[in-house]
């Protein structure tokens, strides 16, 4: 059985997720922990639960989702996995991080490149990988069919979608990606976004003002 734990870190109120199953193997998605206290909160949970961190995965590589990459990678000696299209996005963070008040940002190099042709495994569980560009050029979403869990990053939010005014973003591409990939998931699927509360595919298909039935085109 797949379990999920949510943490909200950094001034961007970014959601960091840990997924794990009965084997206690775990994957950390988008670690936004930057301050010492935030890192302690993450590591204390891992220790208390007796988890074995196996991988570090970025849905995409904007600053708020990668602030804790180096901490997780160095602490747990795990590979950092991203989509190949996110390489320039990740590398640019060290250039602009000081402008956002993160002068102590430590860069972490990717170790493995993943895409929608693969599966992501956690212990006895397997997640589908969906390619959902538009917010970022190599944005990935992760879906676990048995539990109906979808780690959506900054693609689809409760009543909103990811911004597309950053380098590599494109509004129409994001809308098309959401309709093609996310809206084909079961309506009861729980969407765990990069910011804000959880929602469901059914709720967003019906009511999302940007991409749902009531959207204005």
UniProtKB/TrEMBL annotation:
InterPro entries linked: MBL_Glyoxalase_II, Metallo-B-lactamas, RibonucZ/Hydroxyglut_hydro
Cofactor(s) this protein cannot do without: Zn(2+)
Record's protein name: MBL fold metallo-hydrolase
Domain Metallo-beta-lactamase: 13-195
Short name of one Pfam family: Lactamase_B
Species of provenance: Aquiflexum gelatinilyticum
A GO MF term: hydrolase activity
KW Zinc (keyword) present: yes
Domain of life of the organism encoding this protein: Bacteria
């Amino acid at each position: 059985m797949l379990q999920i734990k949510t943490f909200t870190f950094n001034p961007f109120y970014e959601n960091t997720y840990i997924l794990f199953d009965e084997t206690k193997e775990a994957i950390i998605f988008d670690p936004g922990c930057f301050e010492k206290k935030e890192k302690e909160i993450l590591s204390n949970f891992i220790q208390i639960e007796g988890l074995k961190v196996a991988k570090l995965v970025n849905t995409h590589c904007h600053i708020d989702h990668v602030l804790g990459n180096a901490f997780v990678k160095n602490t747990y000696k795990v590979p950092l996995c991203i989509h190949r299209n996110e390489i320039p996005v990740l590398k640019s963070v060290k250039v602009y991080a000081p402008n956002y008040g993160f002068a102590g940002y430590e860069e972490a190099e990717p170790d493995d490149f993943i895409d929608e042709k693969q599966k992501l495994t956690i212990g006895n569980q397997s997640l589908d990988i969906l390619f959902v560009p538009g917010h970022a050029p190599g944005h990935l979403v992760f879906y676990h069919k048995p539990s109906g869990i979808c780690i959506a990053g900054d693609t689809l939010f409760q009543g909103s979608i990811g911004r597309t005014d950053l380098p590599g973003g494109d509004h129409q591409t994001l809308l098309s990606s959401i309709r093609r990939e996310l809206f084909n998931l079961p309506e009861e699927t729980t969407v765990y976004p990069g910011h804000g509360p959880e929602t469901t595919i059914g709720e967003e298909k019906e009511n999302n003002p940007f991409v749902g039935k009531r959207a204005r085109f």
